[in-house]
Amino acid sequence: MAGRDDQRGGCVSTQDNRPDGRGALGGVRIADFSRVLAGPYATMLLADLGADVVKIERPGTGDDTRAWRPPADHDGTSTYYLSVNRNKRSVTLDLATDTGREQARALVAECDVVVENFRPGTMERLGLGHDELRARRPELIYCSISGFGSGPGASIPGYDLLVQAAGGLMSVTGEAHGEPVKAGVALVDVITGLHASLGILAALRHRDTTGEGQLVEVNLLSSLLSAMVNQASAFAVAGVVPGRMGNAHPSIAPYETFPTADRPLALAVGNDKQFAALAEVAGEPGLALDDRFRTNADRVAHRTELKEILTRLLSTDGADHWSAVLLAAGVPAGPVNNLDEAFGFAHELGLPGIVDLPADASGTEGDRPSRQVAHPVALSATPARYLLPPPLLGQHTEEILRGISGHEAP
């Protein structure tokens, strides 16, 4: 199927992304018991790179995100679910029954990796915990994703909003005198999914050299604290407890959004040379020689005066104009885009934005194409592959159970 190269999608043909039919992780099989976002995002990234991911779901309802709509596609499928479940096959197993648990253990016996994000202790109660499964298969890599770890925080539900609040992200997000604000996407789940995929890849590398599997544990709180980088370091090193500053930066100026004649413009001036170029383009080159703004430390100390001056200068034209002339002068600048504009911008830069997946050729009612956001990692020899649209609930149950040694499909 040829991808559409339209004005907003930046679509590319999936045929351009299948060099060898295997990918970097070809031969790796993953039993994915996870649902919602952090786990499914991690396993989708690995599936894009060639891993065979089998998504184990509850009969009848499946992954919670299947019901999280609107918005939905033309078939009524939740776009939330579609965002993190391509390149997977779905099997429904009732883990509350002996038969379902037996089938799950048989499936895991043929897998390299298990991923789960149930509340700590749940998989153990089901007879699918790390110790039991690795006793049967020592080379197994077992990745557990939790909200607050498996210790005293095990009983705390791991919802992204709760972690953004408890983990400090909301304390530094929002206007200085306004309410704490969450990020506009479940950012902690996404970061945790990235950490989970990193841990799994490291464990696979270790197994390649030793033959040994291991337990990989990732939790949302630790992932967020790590991702707070300079803000967390400010506290750890200097005892500084940062607060909300709107779009401003605690250590750099000007590094925030400014109003223009039409819409906001983001300026990310990281050094004195860039500031001098900004002053020149804005029509007041003397700003770079002003003692209040000569160095970054000076600009941070006088950020209020600097913002007033820049707001006045930038109000004479629109954000697109300023973005063009400032970028030409080497000053990092750009308008605040909505998603439509953001995908269009990626297309203008020749970056993959949206890809068209082919219809599933399995002969089921799931034979439908799917539009997806492109994998973000470019590999020259083994690029991401886009082979399967997100599966229907239980779409591959018969196929998968038939392939499990000693088991028959229902």
Walkthrough of the structure:
The protein is α/β, with parallel strands linked by helices. The chain has two domains: 250 residues, Crotonobetainyl-coa:carnitine coa-transferase, domain 1 (Rossmann fold, 3-Layer(aba) Sandwich), CATH 3.40.50; 71 residues, 2-Layer Sandwich (formyl-coa transferase, domain 3), CATH 3.30.1540.10. It has 15 helices and eleven strands. The strands form three sheets. It has a six-stranded parallel β-sheet with strand order 3-2-1-4-5-6, with helices on both faces. Strands 7-8-9 form a three-stranded antiparallel β-sheet, covered by helices on one side. Helix 1 packs across helix 7 and helix 7 crosses helix 8. The longest helix is centred in the middle third of the chain and has 24 residues. InterPro entries: CoA-transferase_III_domain, CoA-Trfase_fam_III, CoA-Trfase_III_dom3_sf, CoA-Trfase_III_dom_1_sf.
Question: Could you outline the blueprint of secondary structure elements for this entry?
Answer:
Elements: E1 29-32, H1 38-48, E2 52-57, H2 79-82, E3 88-92, H3 98-108, E4 113-116, H4 122-125, H5 130-136, E5 141-146, H6 160-166, H7 187-210, E6 215-219, H8 220-227, H9 229-238, E7 255-258, E8 265-268, H10 272-282, H11 296-301, H12 303-314, H13 319-328, E9 333-335, H14 339-348, E10 354-357, E11 370-373, H15 397-403
Parallel strand pairs: 1-2, 1-4, 2-3, 4-5, 5-6
Antiparallel strand pairs: 7-8, 8-9, 10-11
Helix pairs in contact: 1-7, 7-8
